[in-house]
């Protein structure tokens, strides 16, 4: 006979996940939201058309259902989408925990107490957390009997244990500590470790046993929707969030992700916002930009979503962590975090899953001392109070790492209240804007004249309630206003999007081809536009090696293999600066490790795993005329913060300055290693250039002066030369090389008359060109060394 309703979409589907099946969606169920006006007859009609049935009551109480069908899901979605009774229909996607495999233990609870931690002890001076604040852990469950958690497990006040009755009428029988949405019972114990680890970071009990949580006085509601395999359905996530809201949890921790955007979850988050519930979510572990590639639930647009990136013990972003100045709100410790696991034990895990409970714990402390703050205000407090860190400036909107002590201290009732008046209209770099802040003490005293203003580097830029600020840099700039009264500090922060003013710096002379002599006064001229700052002028000796592999000569990048490209440099000068441009296509950039190796073996990592799932380094033509990815130490954007195809200049993973002072002579190696299977690619161009300063002409020159003079020294300067001008992040060099070589020596010998002889030792002009024999190799390296003019072509390609 027919299967009982819900057996396939619930029991069988969850059994598949429990066995580790890699399905991406519930194979027997769809999420369907019916319109408010849909009648029972209309619902029955459309369900009949897809062979579907409702598996139970509404998941959110307002029309969202899990519909079971054994028919083709895509075909059923088409039918449902055409029905006037259906407002929205979509797959019941599989989501999973957002952690990583365990790393070796680095330090005990560094995330709470370490130099780059959240300063939990500073927050505990104000509160350990109030038991009225309940944090729902929507995860794999929680070990309810763990010695570091048992005392802090939420107990449903309206339920009588094990009497088989839904005492509080909330639709769940004997739900004493939460609910298991995987097995549909009242036992949300953990069978995976993940949820217990999260819970320990939020509210591990302060009992001199094991670990302690960020907020050891609050309560944990255990909501299990992820199975022992770590996977679960978004329908159960919706149900879990609905339960949390309905049963008094003002905060939820969501260390999970996957499945894409869902109308069902988005609708549930609208309800969470209406209930003033704070939804704390992990940013994800793909090392990618959430602004460019949203991940869910972290990227839902509701204001009550607080998205968290991960930092490591040295204060930098964890390599696995997603980031985004718009799509991520804050950053917190997430690498090598020690916490509780089921069975009464402890373990060290890494992931944005581990960063998220640090933030949920701080939010719980803030709600403990300031219960009147709304969820959005709590979120803003955590963003505004973050410690600004240069290395994290593009990781999240906060530009730094959460600070529990500052956030909680600014939230206690007796702290001053500070408020910045947001500037109206656009703000351009170089143009002054007036900023105003008000500050009021707990007794009503006006403290505005005592306000201290700090910029994103922590430097005090002004004091008082009003000051004129002139931004010097484009992009999002952060300013914080603080005032301290009776030992308590209140604060507010403003994030101003400063519009870029067009600026440029261009050398106009010399621009290549000139032949100067000792004693010549060489005018180095430039033009500038916009506020470029003072100009430094120098003469550099340049060497460049360009290798092009166009068309059939393109070099293959193969799975699990290393491609070595030799670049022969014949210049014997000392290395100053090094830049490397590449153009390659690859279908999954994160597979690649790219390095540059000096002839003596010194290796610099240019990129490792950058670009996530996106394609290519450089864009346009598949040769050296295309737009290259140029690795340069003076680039504004780090390669790990960029987005493929990385067109333009990027700072490499390791500094190219490691080569400074070494001889440039010999064979350099561009090494490209493909670490994984399935995705492959081709290399089309490698462009290595290096320079060494031979003369400092002038420093700190007003850009409007437009020129500086270099006098060629007696004896001249060997090699191919270029003029260089640098001002802040702007720089330019001569378009081509020029020379400043002393002329050949002329000797005159005179004897007594009647005979006289004059001998000139100047040799005749000569040009030597060496052309290699034809070769069938697939790469070519061209080295140009001048003067005298000569061209040497060689071929070196090694694939290992």
Automatic annotation (TrEMBL):
Q: Which Pfam families match?
A: P_proprotein (PF01483), Peptidase_S8 (PF00082)
Q: Which biological processes are named by the entry's GO terms? A: proteolysis
* The protein, known as: P/Homo B domain-containing protein
Segments for region (Disordered)? 744-800
Could you tell me one molecular function GO term of this UniProt entry? Answer: serine-type endopeptidase activity
Q: Which PROSITE patterns match?
A: P_HOMO_B, SUBTILASE, SUBTILASE_ASP, SUBTILASE_HIS, SUBTILASE_SER
P/Homo B domain ranges (all copies) = 537-696
- PANTHER family found in the cross-reference section: CELL WALL-ASSOCIATED PROTEASE, SUBTILISIN-RELATED
| Lineage, broadest ranks | unclassified sequences, metagenomes, ecological metagenomes
**Which family does the entry's similarity section mention?**
Belongs to the peptidase S8 family.
Keyword annotations for this protein, in alphabetical order, are: Hydrolase, Protease, Serine protease
Q: Which SUPFAM superfamilies does the record associate with it?
A: Galactose-binding domain-like, Subtilisin-like
